[in-house]
Design brief:
The complex is a heterodimer of chains A (352) and B (876). Chain A has one helix and 29 strands. In chain A, the strands form seven sheets. In chain A, strands 26-1-29-28-27 form a five-stranded mixed beta sheet, with no helix packed on it. In chain A, strands 2-3-4-5 form a four-stranded antiparallel beta sheet, with no helix packed on it. A four-stranded antiparallel beta sheet of chain A has the order 6-7-8-9, with no helix packed on it. Chain A starts with 7 loop residues before the first helix and ends with a strand. In chain A, strand 15 (182-186) and strand 16 form a beta hairpin. With 352 residues, chain A is mainly beta. Helices cover 4% and strands 48% of the residues of chain A. Chain A has one helix spanning 8-21; strands spanning 29-33, 41-47, 53-58, 66-71, 75-80, 88-93, 99-104, 109-115, 119-122, 132-137, 143-147, 150-155, 158-163, 171-176, 182-186, 193-198, 201-204, 213-219, 225-231, 234-241, 245-248, 258-263, 269-273, 280-285, 289-292, 297-298, 303-311, 317-323, 345-351. Chain A is globular. Chain B is mainly beta and 876 residues long. Chain B has a seven-stranded mixed beta sheet with strand order 32-40-39-34-37-38-33, with no helix packed on it. Chain B has a six-stranded antiparallel beta sheet with strand order 6-5-4-3-35-36, with no helix packed on it. In chain B, strands 1, 2, 29, 30 and 31 form a five-stranded antiparallel beta sheet that branches. Chain B starts with a helix and ends with a strand. The chains are: A mainly beta (352), B mainly beta (876). Chains A and B meet through strand 7 and strand 27 of A and strand 16, strand 20 and strand 62 of B.
Amino acid sequence: MRTRCVSVERCLLLMVIACLAAPALAQTYVAVNLGTLRGGSARVHQLNENGEVVGGSGFVYGAGRHAFLWRRAGGMRDLGTLPGGDISEAFSINNAGQVVGTSNTGSSMRAFLWSESGGLRDLGTIAGANSSQAYGINDSGQIVGNSGTRAVVWSNGTVQDIGGLPNSTWSEARAINNLGQVVGFSNTPQGPRAFLWSGGAFRNLGTLPGDSASRANFIDDTGRVVGASEQNGNVRAFLWTETTGMQPLGSLPGGTYSEAFGMNNAGQVVGQSGSSLGTRAFLWSASTGMVDLNTIVTGPPNLVLTGAFGINVKGAIIAFGILETGTNRNQETRGDIHIHQAGTRAFLLMPQ
Amino acid sequence: MFPGCCRALLSYRSWRLIVAVLVLACCARAQTTGQWSALQTLPYIPIHTTLLPNGKVLFFSYYSDSLYPRVWDPATNSVTAAAIAPFELFCSGHTLMADGRLFIAGGHIADYTGYPQALIYDPGGNSFTAVPDMNAGRWYPTNTLLPNGDVLVVSGDMTSNTSPNPLAQVYQVSTNSWRDLTTAQLQTPLYPAMFVAPNGKVFNAGPSRTTRYLDISGTGAWTVVGSMQFSGTRDYGPGVMYDVGKVLMVGGSDPPTNTAEIINLNSSTPAWTYTGAMNYARRQHSAVALPDGKVFVAGGSSGAGFDNSSTPVYPTEMWDPATGQWTVMASIGAFRGYHSTLLLLPDGRVFSGGGNVAGPTYQIFSPPYLFAGARPTISSAPNTARYGQTVLIGTPNATSISKVTLLALGSTTHTLEQNQRFMRVSFTQTTGGLNVTFPASPNVAPPGYYMLFLLNTAGVPSVAKIIQITASAPTSGTVTGTVTNSSGAALGGATVTAGGASATTFSNGTYNLTNVPSGTVTLSASLAGYQNASRSVTVATGATTSAPTLALAPINPGAVTGTVKNSAAAAISGATVTAAGQSTKTSSLGSYTLANLPAGAITLAASAVGYTASSVQANVTAGATTTAPAITLVANFGAVSGTVRNAAGTAIAGASVSYGGGSTTTNTSGVFSFAKVPVGTIQLVASATGYTTQSQNVTISGGVTSTANFTLSAPTGTVTGRVTNVSTGGAIANATVRWSGGSTLTSSTGTYSLRNVTTGSQSITASATGYLTRTLKANVIGGATTTLNIPLATAGKITVRATFANGTAVSGATVTVKGGVIATTVSGTTNTSGYYYSPWIPIGSYTITVAKSGYVTRSKTATVSTGATTTVTFGF
């Protein structure tokens, strides 16, 4: 979901334009059901500016799950697995249509890069490790993830162990922006911490006050970071900026849990929040606060969107949810017989 | 009524005979298909079910209910509250440890988001102890007890934006730390089926078709063993280790399959092969190994999709590994689908409970072997046995015993059994019983608690003796007992200690102190507000000692009196009031008195059916009766009512109003109401034909009627399209497009978009300088976009002149002009000068017809050009 930015100035300009074009509160969405590959379950992780979407689809328990690429023309396409593998999942796509993710081989798992011309390619590992995962790719084709116990960046065919926060034994990179800045999490003697890796240096983003752990999930092209901060399982979405530091995004009424998964260069954030009606997909902006996407999306009344994971500058959002006989988006989902771990469906939410 | 002869035939003796025949027929059926007990209820849905070493069953339910685990005693059918969990245990992984404690990994933060925390529940101490956090969250992980007593944890969702936690981790009991299997990272399904294999590796038997070994030594390694025969995926199909190194995977997939397959890990080249297929396809069912080595399957749905309650499978089935065949067993009384559990009890019966559809109910299955004659009995047995040790199992039935079997205590959820395994053990007859030799290898029997069954030649099992298999000789025993107040009422939450071991009493006052050093020790109980009590007990090595009840006397007792009332200050009779372990009911005047309470601050808690429980604080004065503040209970329910109107304020009758708990329609005044709505926030949805559905959140307070009014507006849609020159196809910019509710201008490319247009057939008019204005109909659909392109034509005029041969004007002739680039017909009559003037009409070719009564009608063609008048003359 990257917009090409060759400089910070151009990115800021893009952001301003995007803000001007940002949907007002009255913005509503049409939900496009992306379907499934098999087995009735799909999860969705990223989209690009062309509205191309990636994720994984398989059986409800996750068996038989394969990475997919969805395009408006042609629908959901199975990207397969690396040789010997049974499970794969795609986590990111850039504006050139390059897809990254993770696939099992027979005895391990490997980060992969898929392109229309090159197909599925094993990105390999760092020395001493036998596994890797890829979570993010920018428009320059730089890929981030982890290999063994270390956060890594693949660039121009080489893999770099970028390490972690001081005294860490474990780190994972989750996203990279078009300026080459990387976010993720690293363990520390104090517990897991969200990090920002920029210009070759690590920065500990801390936690929300009183919390013991944090993780960064995404960074936009202006360097804003979203993720979650946690204390004994009490998970709260955060937005981090250079000027404000880490700030909580709150949660929907009646909920305490929230986590932010994606954002666009216009500053709109998407994620998942608890509420009086159960777990819900949310859209957050500085002007509107946190909004339950179910209240601004049209679609069948039994569609309940439970999480949103990416948003592009055009305002298109990817989300997942439940679409079962008997579900009702106006009904509390907690305890509902169909909500918990039923097959999930992936949706592209198009601004109306 | 029967005829007289039949009445005579149906004498008392005959009735007795019929009853006897029916009983025999029933028993005959039970001998072949077993028998289910009546359906019974539990306080909540048993979604996570574990058989504890004391023979009781621990339940976790779902969501926040899982904060409150319960212990069910099959012997008394009573349910007791266990210690409150520190977080929601729903969706955790769990397995019993070597010492009988339960290791719990992860849990439910939100759907697809798991806790990184892990806990140990001690059934003896009735307490939860945290261990260090795992690498990340786990929601639906699998726990496996390893041969050295450590616990393997795999899989489980971290967040809804990641795939399941790929890192396998081992909890090391001796150091209370995690060992990361960093070279065993893999994408896995949720709740994978994992079994310790005879080679010491852990076998992943499903639900993925590719099955693997996980070598847990060093930093770990996965290797592929082979693929299952079934070409689909055994999603929600259970696995059972039905013998040493032998695994059965049965059913599952979507749509469900009836196939089952087995693998023998003792083979040098293990491979999956089909065994007999079940009589019914099933998904989200459960499977359990029985004392005789057969496998019992119950529940599930045969239809496609998730927890399909339209196709429940009521018949149950039994698989015989000797023949590979399935036999249909007695039908279950409820749909045990998703969130149901199945558990073998020490008495050889099988517990089946839960399921989202069947809810908080259970049934007990008595397999056919319980109808095949007298049961052998175990008269004595040790509490523990070491690997390879031969121990005496006392039985008066030694000569008839043909089989001795061991089954690990089950720990099950979501069709996944994390602890159960079956094995036969060797034995010889001896004086007073059997010499039974326990397995030599912890790979065959990981350390911990097992049910030992004796089976006679008729296949009838004894009631099991639960025996702990340990690596070393025990030096301690267990003490059980009860703590009460001096009135004999159970005291929950009391601390009981003996020889360094400590436990907290359950809500029914009982405790279970494990690992108490052998010999004579002092047993003490304490609870705030009471005097400590203690006595000495002698603890037998490896045995359970039942201690006399410890009664605690209050410190400086006093009494409290008070009343319980509702929000309207009316007395509530029959409300339960509890304080300091004692309870009483209120009188018809709502009053109560509790005597013999400890002096000092106490909490008085009141509860009544239909009300939210509440409590007050009171200060008990020694030797006096204190009047406590009245306890006000708020009704659990409130009500909501309101009116549904349209934008003009007119009531809408017959509008549908609903929330999660029901729906209704408005009356002729547009009024709706719901009584008995649970307190909290509900979302009300109002809809009516021809209007846009609306919703609003309403907060319901106990005993209060909230108001929620709706104003529904007619739905609108969008009309878009392009305005073009019909002749050239070129865009017409700045054309005005309007409907009765508004207008817009076309863009430079001729496009327009009219928003918020009332649904139905609407007239859309486009006009532009130099073009003929044109109106078209659009069928506007609520919430949708209708495309309406509007081609416009430039215009000219036609003048018709009709004259007679003598040159005089033909007046009153009918003129019809038909044609044009946009089909147009205009008509009129000639004036007294013989002229007809058309209005502006689209350019293009026209046929002009002039008719005059008494004359032959004439026709001509002519072309109309932009901005010009074309004159056509007719002669009569």
